[in-house]
Specification:
By secondary structure, the chain is an all-alpha fold. It has 2 helices and no strands. It starts with 11 loop residues before the first helix and ends in an 8-residue tail after the last helix. 0% of the residues are buried. The mean pLDDT is 82.
Length: 75
């Protein structure tokens, strides 16, 4: 089996940029990294990332509930 020659090295920081671009395009999930391929542990990785995102969202929602002013009786 012959491998293609390396044309350029992509710095790991660049993958964060690719992730942001994908999210700006409307993708709900972007797996971007030097050793990521579309089928490699995709389900486990997406479940982990989605769980982390849901946890952050729930924390934000909970924080907003505590910031809301309490209704005054008879107001």
């Amino acid at each position: 089996m012959h491998h293609l020659p390396v044309v350029s090295f992509i710095h790991p920081d660049e993958f964060k940029e690719y992730e942001a671009i994908g999210e700006e395009m409307g993708f709900a999930f972007v797996a971007s990294g030097p050793f990521i391929r579309s089928s490699y542990n995709a389900i486990a990785f997406s479940e982990k990332v989605m769980r982390e995102r849901l946890d952050r969202l729930e924390a934000k929602m909970s924080a907003r509930k505590t910031e809301l002013p309490m209704a005054q009786p008879g107001a």
